[in-house]
Amino acid sequence: MAQDITIPDLGDFHDVEVIDVLVKPGDKIEVDTPLVTLETEKATMDVPSTAAGVVKSVALKQGDRVSKGDLVLTLETDDAAGQAPAATPAPEAAPAAAPAAAGAATEVVVPDIGDFQDVEVIDVLVKPGDTIEVDTPLITLETEKATMDVPSTAAGVVQSVALQKGDRVSKGSPILTVAATGGASAAAPAQPAAPAAALAPS
Length: 202
Known about the structure:
Blueprint: E1 2-6, E2 16-21, E3 28-29, E4 34-39, E5 44-48, E6 53-58, E7 65-66, E8 71-77, H1 97-102, E9 105-109, E10 119-124, E11 131-132, E12 137-142, E13 147-151, E14 156-161, E15 168-169, E16 174-179, H2 190-199
Antiparallel strand pairs: 1-8, 2-4, 2-7, 3-6, 4-5, 6-8, 9-16, 10-12, 10-15, 11-14, 12-13, 14-16
């Protein structure tokens, strides 16, 4: 669909001269691609695109004078995602937590670590908000014989972490709560327990 790209807020400047037009009809551009160069009394500045797509028409030429809101060009966007204003691309990452909240919460616990119990946590490797996969290391434990990482038995976004460095844990102690991102929480506690137990004797 077509989308107009306009001059953004230039601060106190208006009626600013266009000294260069950097794109032409048919060009494929991305978000933040420079479109025109303006010259104020203090500096020159490029005006970036706020959408991605193919340039349909350019409304400005060298020597024109523009102010906030003036049309720069019309763009044929690839899809609705290309319409995000310049200010929105960064915050787009934030909603990633929203689908997570909708997923089922899974508690990940310390697996069978052999004959060891009351084992010290020497490092916590994740924090709330982290996206993890099955087998992502969550904490590092130190036994009398070795150190071992405890892997996750579920994939998703970490909601809360129950442990901190210096805590002591045994089999079944809660590590964290994870919200499944895709609704499918790969949770097979028996499988990650095996590698953990295998590490213990070494």
